[in-house]
Amino acid sequence: MIDITNKKGLEGIIPALILPVNKEGKINFKLLEKQTTYLISESINGIFINGTTGEGAWLTMEEKVQVFKSIKEINKGKVFLCAACLQPTTELVISEIKIYEKYEPDYIVAVTPYYYSVSQDIIIEHFKKIADFSSVPLILYNIPQCTHNKIELSTILKLAKEENIAGIKDSSGD
Questions:
Q1: Transmembrane ranges (predicted)?
Q2: Which terminus of the chain, N or C, has fewer Cβ atoms within 10 Å?
Q3: Catalytic hit among 141, 150, 158, 161
């Protein structure tokens, strides 16, 4: 039996940050600070940054870094920070990780490859390559309604054996 619980200290309440934007679609950093401060005050364990509700698929890399750095400054090490890489290919995820690693997230969160349907073997290879590359523990992000590729239970069990895979965010609703 594989124990896939509490790897790398991952536990507790980890809300996905909703990115506040103004009428022009620009990031509202004042509201971001207010939201982040409130969440931290409510005894959460971590924050999921630049994910689906954080507009991560729509932001430029520069904007993603601005959001991450802003939250990190507000956080001051109180809770752990999870940086999402919502890219469609292994290579693009690794490119984002290279940038994020400079700002020291506690976890990287990555989705399956998307746009094209892929096999579970390709999903395993994708996450193994990312985990092997990253100096930061990896959280798998299962959101098949957006990626059109579900991470099957058998795949999760295989990936749980990987040293640098810390957990999974399952947004499948299944």
A1: none
A2: N
A3: 141
pLDDT digits (tens, 9 = 90+) for 68-108: 999 999 999 999 999 999 999 999 999 999 999 999 999 99
Q: Please state the pTM of the whole predicted model.
A: 0.91
CA angle (46, 145, 118) in 5-degree steps: 105
In angstroms, the CA 79 to CA 39 distance is: 10
Task: Specify the number of domains making up the chain.
Answer: 1
Q: What is the pLDDT of residue 1?
A: 38
Residue 8 known to be catalytic: no
Q: Which two tokens stand for residue 42?
A: 């409510």
> How far apart, in whole angstroms, are the C-alpha atoms of residue 64 and residue 168?
21
Task: List the CATH number of the domain containing 165.
Answer: 3.20.20.70
Domain range for 108 is 7-170
How do residues 2-36 score in pLDDT, each as one tens digit? Answer: 444 545 578 899 999 999 999 999 999 999 999 99
Residue 69 is among the residues annotated as catalytic for this protein = no
